């Protein structure tokens, strides 16, 4: 079992965040991976940009920035969403979980889906992987998957340019302890 | 990244949202049509009024002979609703094929209708279901028939200071219905989407998304089918779109194919 190095939660934006442009900067807090983060950002800052550019939570990736590739998938109140298609300010009072928050905070043990992705070599370049893993965790929460075909359909929002799909399905099937021959 | 400034206002109730919209700007619900269009600068409102937390816009209920879907219901809410599956199953079927699960967790029926993308799925479904779209504005609420709602590409009968509050769908005993689409493989927008409702007396209503710049009820085809003829005039009298996904000729062909599939599904 590998262990993850957990990021140290910061309670303020990093030393030199991008300067908000224009007027109307808002101050609010977001709850991410159980920690509270204070933000001073313009309202047009997407949740994805807030994570990456203001909070140093760069595990969540920007792919298409238009909601088609799934690289930016995070969990909000347990549901998977595209963080590029939502404004940070819309998520005050929500529980946000990113790839950095999936491992066990006490022991550092990886989340079973993270471990399965390593065990099954379910990536090549790895850029889509945080989104794939968050999406898989969200999908497992939804409780509708019974077959490999279900996995493929319900993971269809997460595109892998390297084409690691067979191993991604293997990893998820393994975590869910599904029968590979189930129809 | 959105590259220009706007104001953000959050409404706690429908009346507050209407008051804020009167100051200008656009309503923001799930944001899954509006935010991408702002990133592409197809839209550049000075202000967004966040209606995503308004409890009155949520929920799905039966009211007499109508299924009432709150405008803030997500596609996922609708796909998984037992009431929808039982009374207007086409809406659950169609909602379950919008985008992907992450999109269905945020995008709302009201937002999609207000945006009126010609390739969105809801327009064909609300047209074929003969639904009514209820909106609230400064002078109160009014009901707009789906057939009067879509006026042009991204244009609707909704005024700038009005908010869609609910979609009312007649529940028809014994009706069979389906929504069949040919999807763009990445976005899953409809290159062609065909909704068919067949009443208990065998009469059909047919509507298309994705075919023309405005979603439409195909009344010429309905007349043919309802008088026992075969459908030879699909999308006659409308201008059929042509783009790098599908030429006009191919779209017209797909419209015929997906109408046939839909008719087979309700046979």
UniProtKB/TrEMBL annotation, chain A:
| Compositional bias ranges of the Polar residues kind | 1-14
Q: Answer yes or no on keyword Iron-sulfur.
A: yes
The alphabetical list of record keywords is:
2Fe-2S, Iron, Iron-sulfur, Metal-binding, Oxidoreductase
Q: Where is this region: Disordered?
A: 1-23
Presence of the UniProt keyword Oxidoreductase in the record: yes
- What domain of life does the native source organism fall in? Bacteria
Annotated GO molecular function terms are:
2 iron, 2 sulfur cluster binding; metal ion binding; oxidoreductase activity, acting on the aldehyde or oxo group of donors
The segment(s) forming the 2Fe-2S ferredoxin-type domain are 26-102
What protein am I looking at?
A: 2Fe-2S iron-sulfur cluster binding domain-containing protein
What PROSITE patterns does the entry give?
A: 2FE2S_FER_1 (PS00197), 2FE2S_FER_2 (PS51085)
Q: Where is the signal peptide?
A: none
Q: Which residues form a coiled coil?
A: none
Task: Please report a single Pfam family linked to this protein.
Answer: Fer2_2
From TrEMBL, chain B:
Question: Where do transmembrane segments lie in this chain?
Answer: none
Cite the FAD-binding PCMH-type domain residue spans from the record. 1-174
One annotated GO molecular function is:
FAD binding
Q: From which residue to which does any coiled coil extend?
A: none
Q: Which InterPro entries does the record match to this protein? A: CO_DH_flav_C, CO_DH_flav_C_dom_sf, Diverse_Substr_Oxidored, FAD-bd_PCMH, FAD-bd_PCMH-like_sf, FAD-bd_PCMH_sub1, FAD-bd_PCMH_sub2, Mopterin_DH_FAD-bd
UniProt keyword annotation of Oxidoreductase present: yes
Key words of the record: FAD, Flavoprotein, Oxidoreductase
Q: Which PANTHER family match?
A: XANTHINE DEHYDROGENASE SUBUNIT C-RELATED (PTHR42659:SF2)
Q: Under which name does UniProt file this protein? A: Xanthine dehydrogenase family protein subunit M
């Amino acid at each position: 079992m590998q262990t993850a190095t957990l990021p140290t939660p910061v309670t303020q934006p990093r030393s030199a965040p991008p300067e908000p442009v224009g007027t109307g900067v808002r101050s609010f807090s977001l709850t991410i991976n159980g920690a509270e983060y204070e933000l001073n950002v313009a309202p047009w800052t997407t949740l994805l940009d807030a994570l990456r550019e203001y909070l140093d939570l760069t595990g969540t990736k920007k792919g298409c920035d238009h909601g088609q590739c799934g690289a930016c998938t995070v969990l909000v109140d347990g549901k998977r969403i595209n963080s590029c298609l939502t404004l940070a300010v819309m998520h005050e009072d929500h529980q946000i979980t990113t790839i950095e928050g999936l491992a066990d905070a006490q022991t550092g043990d990886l989340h079973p889906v993270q471990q399965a992705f390593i065990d099954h070599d379910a990536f090549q370049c790895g850029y889509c992987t945080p989104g794939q893993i968050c999406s898989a965790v969200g999908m497992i929460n939804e409780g509708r998957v019974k077959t490999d075909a279900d996995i493929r359909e319900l993971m269809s929002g997460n595109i892998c340019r390297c084409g690691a799909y067979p191993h991604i399905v293997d990893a998820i099937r393994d975590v869910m302890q599904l029968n590979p021959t189930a129809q | 990244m959105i590259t220009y400034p706007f104001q953000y206002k959050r409404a706690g109730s429908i009346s507050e949202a209407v008051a804020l919209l009167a100051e200008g700007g656009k309503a923001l619900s799930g944001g899954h049509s509006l935010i991408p269009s702002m990133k592409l600068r197809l839209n550049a409102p000075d202000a967004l009024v966040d209606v995503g937390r308004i409890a009155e816009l949520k929920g799905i209920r039966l009211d007499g002979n109508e299924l009432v879907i709150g405008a803030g219901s997500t596609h996922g809410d609708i796909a998984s609703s037992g009431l929808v599956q039982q009374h207007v199953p086409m809406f659950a079927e169609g909602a379950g094929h919008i985008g992907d699960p992450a999109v269905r967790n945020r995008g709302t029926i009201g937002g999609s209708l207000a945006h009126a993308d010609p390739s969105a799925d809801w327009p064909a479904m609300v047209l074929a279901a003969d639904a009514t779209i209820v909106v609230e504005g400064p002078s109160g609420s009014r009901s707009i028939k789906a057939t009067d709602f879509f006026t042009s590409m991204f244009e609707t009968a909704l005024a700038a200071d009005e908010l869609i509050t609910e979609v009312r769908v007649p529940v028809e005993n014994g009706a069979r219905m389906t929504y069949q689409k040919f999807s763009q493989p990445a976005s899953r927008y409809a290159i062609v989407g065909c909704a068919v409702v067949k009443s208990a007396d065998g009469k059909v209503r047919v509507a298309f998304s994705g075919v023309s710049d405005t979603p439409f009820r195909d009344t010429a085809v309905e007349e043919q089918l309802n008088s026992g003829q075969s459908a030879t005039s699909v999308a006659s009298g409308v201008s059929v779109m042509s783009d790098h996904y599908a030429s006009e000729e191919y779209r017209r062909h797909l419209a015929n194919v997906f109408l046939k599939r839909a008719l087979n599904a309700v046979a």
